[in-house]
Amino acid sequence: MVNESQKSPQDKSHRIATTDDIEVSTYLEIAKEIGGEQPAITEEAVSGAEREAIIVLDFGSQYNMLIARRVRECQVYCELLPYDTPWEKIAPLNPKGFILSGGPASVYAPNAPLAPAYVYESHLPVLGICYGMQVITKQLGGKVTRGTKREYGYASLLLSEVDSPLFTDLPESTPVWMSHGDKIEEMPPDFTALAQTENSPFAVIGNGTGIYGLQFHPEVAHTPEGATILRNFVYHVCGCKKNWTMGNFVNESIAHIKEQVGDGKVINALSGGVDSSVVATLIHRAIGDQLTCIFVNNGLLRREEADRTLKVFKNNLGMNIIYVDATDRFLNRLKGVVDPEEKRMIIGEEFIRIFEEEANKIGKVDFLAQGTLYPDVIESVSSVSTASAKIKSHHNVGGLPAKMVLNLLEPLRYLFKDEVRLVGKELGLPEEMVWRQPFPGPGLAIRCIGEVTQEKLEILRSADFILMNEIKKAKMYNQLWQSFCVLTDVRSVGVMGDYRTYGYLVAVRAVTSNDAMTADWARLPYDLLARISNRIVNEVDGVNRVVYDITSKPPSTIEWE
Ligand code: XMP
Fold it and tell me: Do 76 and 54 meet the contact criterion of CB atoms below 8 Å apart?
């Protein structure tokens, strides 16, 4: 890397000073943290004696994952499990209460899913949400009928039993989000109505022994006090302690990995992204050199990305890394290919081939580490048909386990993305790295429209580096889900000085999103867009026009491809 004093004045005006880039300082920060605080492994954490869980039994509502997230945000461990999960699987989790989720069924339909007997026989607190409330009503002797019209949208909740532990810190009236067809006509014996809305006299019911039902959805953002109600349930009704912290998770996880792996060998495909970095760091903390990371440079990474990733994990963190520069192999196979799906297939296939070749050189390996997250696990285990449930293999290394006979080591499989980032912080990775924006597995190949060539990749890298640099200088990086450049295959006429140019069109894409399922184009300030555009056309040879993508997802996607 050229440092400031080595550059000629001309270089200075055209070259992007990498030391300005926050990502560089990120890596320097990591360097300082190498020896950093390693969390002490307390006996308490290792024994797991303290771990308590709230179990959400899944009846199929689209909001179910949110319930688990809201509970975890209370620092209480929570798992979302199919409604018919046997008690033997639940007991080891040390359950302190159940939440019966919403769902699309009708309790009076034949074969309607109901709660297993242990939910009531355990005498643990139960909170039924929407369909879950109807399940409680039916099973405990009340009556549910089909509503004459579906109630959907906001309603105003009026509390009648303000002293209920469920209502601590709640105003007497608050908006709630309704989405139900059936309704409670008669409460089960010993239940009373604790709150109502205009259309639902039984909007909240309870029986005084810790069994509650909510007609509305407390887990969605449309119910502003919903998180307070869930918090009240887990703390004041179930008596849970706040012990689901990422510090405890790291301790438990390190102990667990040591036990699981023993003196075996683990391989991991390192990409430099958040998940694979956290997986690698966590496993490395647990078993050190028994872990080997394979880092394949497919030639489709952003500027300096391969060097920086290597520096961090090999030099700074001292990991065992096999680095393969496979740029030529990938680019040769991509020659003449314009179809985006074909590009993806080629890249995936080549990756697996190289990964296998390298893994075979290591000798006997026992485990393959993967950055599978909890949403992948939940999505792949359908609550309605557990029999046909399949575990999805990881996005970026799909296909590996089928070909290689290895045990999977998935230390993040019970974590949500935001928890993975917190674990990263807990492990001493600085915020800038932990909050990195997602980068697709097939890399720049899908952001280079049409044929992928070395020349086009260089143009894209230069433009993208400028964009990232300006976004970070404007302190907008963390507010955006993603921000990047696309090199289109459109060329147009321009004028530069006295010359006519015929150059590429670069598109800038910046979006806000919570989960990439939907996204909105970011309202970047005009001045920032102007700086980005000016710098790209002035500093990147071959580009004479920049446009900003103002479409949301749907109907567009985030990437162009
Ligand atoms: P789209 O373009 O479908 O993208 O709106 C949604 C999110 O997924 C990312 N993406 C990928 N991530 N491997 C990944 O790890 C991939 O092959 C891949 N393709 C798209 C994309 O960047 C966006 O965040």
Answer: yes
How many angstroms separate the alpha carbon of residue 67 from the centre of ligand 1?
25
Active site residue 219: yes
To the query of whether residue 78 is one of the catalytic residues in this protein, the response is no
| Residue 455 is a catalytic residue | no
Confirm if 214 and 128 have CB atoms less than 8 A apart.
yes
Rounded Cα gap, residues 458 and 540, in angstroms? 9
Q: Quick one: how many helices (H) and strands (E) in the chain?
A: 19, 18
Whether 76 contacts 93, CB under 8 Å? no
Amino acid at 194: L
Q: Which residues contact 139 (CB under 8 A, 6 or more apart)?
A: 114, 115, 120
Q: Which of 551, 529, 533 is nearest to 543 (CA)?
A: 533
Structural element, H or E, at residue 78:
strand 77-82
Q: Which residues touch 354 (CB under 8 Å, ≥6 apart)?
A: 296, 324, 326, 329
Residue 136 is encoded by which pair of tokens?
């409680």
- Ligand 1 site residues (CB inside 6 A) read 395-396, 438, 440-442, 482, 516, 553, 557-559
Q: For residue range 261-310, what is the model confidence (pLDDT) as tens digits?
A: 999 999 999 988 889 899 999 999 999 999 999 999 999 999 988 998 88
Closest by CA to 55, choosing from 92, 25, 105, is 92
